[in-house]
Amino acid sequence: MDQQPTPERLEIERLRQRVRVLEARLAEQEQLRLLLRHSRDSLVVLNADRSQRYVSPGAGSITGYAIDELQGRSLAELIHPDDLPAVAAAWDEAVANPDRAVTVRYRHIHKTKGWVHSEAIGQSFLGDPLINGVIASVRDISDHIRTERESRRFEHALQAVFNATTESIHLIRADGTVLMANEATAQRLGTTAERLVGRVVYDLFPPEAAARRRHCIEQ
Phi then psi for 210, rounded to 5 degrees? Predict the structure, then answer.
């Protein structure tokens, strides 16, 4: 016949369970610390007054500042003045809608490089007593912004070359979608170059002419 466990044994088992739970939580926290330490992105926890309560190690590679130089500082000290209205609007939207994340782009001060383009995805947990803050994941998008600018410059230069000739020139995809067209093409078709972009070129000609053009392109 099995013996009933004594109160002492029950208490020991309860203590063992608590230790196992505590060990599991500590392991999770250590994994999180390792993840944040090696992440190139920065995790920031902000107070209701928009001061930074916690900044993860990734912020160092983005801003050039040590963590203790960033913690406690307000957004108004760190963000380019021209971008503060957009960031403030994003903050208000996040606080008003704690069930969803809000994304905003802005320039963040760098210790030695002036300003760096950043993107933050934030969500408000001000109503959660365990967090009582806004959590934001921040990444450096300077390379992405640079690529976008170079792409726009290339497009403008290519458009200038297109418009420099009186011949009809247009750039299309294999399916006939117009990617770019010069003014000569637009005038010939009685529209503007901007309105041509995105249209299917075969729809702009009579059926027979469109069929000939499709045949030439597909060959």
Answer: -65, -40
Instruction: Flag whether pLDDT at 2 surpasses 60.
Output: no
Please tell me the total number of residues recorded for the chain in this structure: 219
Q: What is the pLDDT of residue 173?
A: 80
CA distance 204 to 198: 12
CA neighbor of 175 nearest in space, from 212, 195, 201, 140: 201
CA R_g for the chain: 29
Q: How many CB atoms lie within 10 A of CB 217?
A: 14
Report CA 31 to chain centroid distance, whole Å: 24
